[in-house]
Design a protein that fits this description.
With 273 residues, the protein is mainly α. The chain has one domain. 76% of the residues lie in helices and 0% in strands. The protein has 8 helices and no strands. Helix 1 packs antiparallel against helix 8, helix 5 packs across helix 7 and helix 5 crosses helix 8. The protein is globular, with a radius of gyration of 20 Å. Pfam families: BaxI_1.
């Protein structure tokens, strides 16, 4: 398959569609010899849009829970509320990590799993965003607006074919994606043992040249990765993929939006220091 997505769930979606078509052919015979035509409702791009909106909405609602807890806790000095919100955020982080790893092996076509991921990430987003907002007033709104603008801009560039997917583009993006994932896992593992590798700057303090390069590079990757996701969804809809794969497309776009927001939040905090 020449065109691939950097998003593992979307990439596995295409592989699963091919396997389903093969098993369907074995069960019903080749075209012209079928005893009964299989009836599978096809996925549409509108299905992906509706499901993406639902997942983003679930993320926002969950984020407001921990955002309010941390914001009120900071305002009133209620450390218990802040601690509870941070605990919920940590649970959300591990839920999100588990679902992402699972999506590397199997596309997320179960709406329950998709909503669990969205809710877990929302709990983490809300608490951390409230801390950033307290330190850099207005940064959350700027990050949200930036996320929407980047997503809309990449969609326009893809729609008008200014940017296109290609085998080489896909290979570069997928390779870079694995590198970024590995970098983040190494950094996470080191931080759990109290080690600071200096790859990402903390909420305050100076920012090194290396940290600037990493932050800008990952943010650009997050933006351009939407081109691959749009292409994969368009291909799947054109090929008549089963409707359940609309959840895989929605999950991929939601994960991409969340990842882009995280990186814009970090990058904006660097600019405000």
């Amino acid at each position: 398959m020449g065109m691939q997505s950097n998003n593992s769930s979307l990439r596995n979606m295409m592989k699963s569609q091919y396997r389903e078509q093969q098993s369907m052919g074995a069960a019903y015979g080749q075209y012209g010899q079928m005893t009964q035509a299989p009836r599978v409702e096809a996925m549409r791009i509108d299905d992906v849009i509706v499901r993406t909106a639902a997942l983003v909405g679930a993320t926002f609602v969950a984020a407001m829970v921990t955002y309010s807890m941390v914001a009120n806790g900071i305002a009133t000095g209620d450390q218990a509320a802040i601690s509870t919100a941070m605990t919920l955020g940590m649970v959300g982080m591990f839920i999100g990590l588990g679902v992402i790893i699972f999506s590397m092996f199997k596309p997320i076509t179960n709406p329950i799993v998709a909503f669990v991921y969205a809710g877990g990430q929302g709990l983490l987003l809300g608490g951390v965003s409230a801390i950033f907002e307290q330190q850099y007033p207005g940064i959350v709104v700027n990050a949200l607006v930036g996320t929407v603008m980047v997503f809309g801009g990449m969609l326009a560039l893809y729609k008008f074919r200014i940017l296109k997917n290609s085998p080489m583009f896909a290979k570069v993006m997928i390779g870079a994606g694995f590198g970024i994932f590995g970098l983040m896992m190494v950094n996470l593992g080191a931080s759990m043992f109290g080690m600071n590798l200096g790859l990402f700057a903390g909420p305050t303090g100076d920012v090194s040249t290396l940290q600037w390069i990493i932050a800008i590079g990952i943010t650009l990757w997050a933006a351009f990765s939407f081109i691959l996701d749009f292409d994969m969804i368009e291909q799947s809809a054109a090929a008549g993929a089963p409707k359940k794969y609309a959840w895989a497309g929605a999950f991929g776009l939601t994960a991409g939006l969340i990842f882009l927001y995280w990186n814009l939040l970090r990058l904006l905090s660097y600019f405000q220091r």
